[in-house]
């Protein structure tokens, strides 16, 4: 018997509830439990000597959250902030870490989608900062963000100031 045969077998879920988060230059695909809250657009407190993608900090539920422009992390220009913009508060995936949440500017309201293995396909393309994978979901293109990298980038900036 090999070591793999001794591992317990678990079934992969047949469907995962996810959200498509609209950006100025595309959309992000995240599991529903990654999103903590959608809030109205608000001006962040300015951050001193911050990278362009670090827009500042928000006060949310007695926490200071970094507000990020994902498009700028990918090398695109800062998107225009209009009345339809929202802010997504996301779990970093590290609840016991120094930064359990951060926020992203969205260009609209997220959309709920059900993802099945048959509908999801990887796409070719080099990943930019903060991107984990490029995917197609039933013909729609999206990016799965690398939450760990986003958390690390925010923490590096905060520790360096």
Automatic annotation (TrEMBL):
Residues 15-156 form the CheW-like domain. It comes from the Bacteria. InterPro entries: CheW-like_dom_sf, CheW-lke_dom. SUPFAM superfamilies: CheW-like. It holds the Pfam family CheW. This is Chemotaxis protein CheW. It comes from Microbulbifer celer. The lineage of its organism: Bacteria, Pseudomonadati, Pseudomonadota, Gammaproteobacteria, Cellvibrionales.
């Amino acid at each position: 018997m090999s070591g793999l045969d001794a591992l317990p077998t678990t079934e992969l879920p047949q469907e995962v509830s996810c959200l498509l988060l609209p950006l100025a230059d595309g959309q992000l695909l995240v599991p529903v439990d990654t999103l903590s809250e959608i809030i109205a657009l608000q001006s962040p407190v300015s951050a001193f000597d911050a990278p362009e993608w670090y827009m500042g900090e928000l006060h949310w539920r007695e926490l200071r959250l970094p507000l990020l422009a994902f498009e700028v992390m990918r090398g695109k220009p800062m998107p225009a902030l209009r009345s339809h913009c929202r802010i997504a508060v996301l779990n970093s995936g590290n609840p016991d870490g120094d930064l359990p949440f951060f926020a992203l500017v969205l260009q609209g309201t997220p959309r709920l989608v059900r993802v099945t293995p048959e509908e999801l396909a990887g796409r070719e393309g080099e990943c930019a900062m903060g991107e984990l994978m490029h995917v197609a979901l039933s013909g729609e293109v999206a990016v799965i963000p690398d939450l760990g990298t986003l958390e690390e980038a925010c923490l590096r900036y905060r520790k360096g100031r």
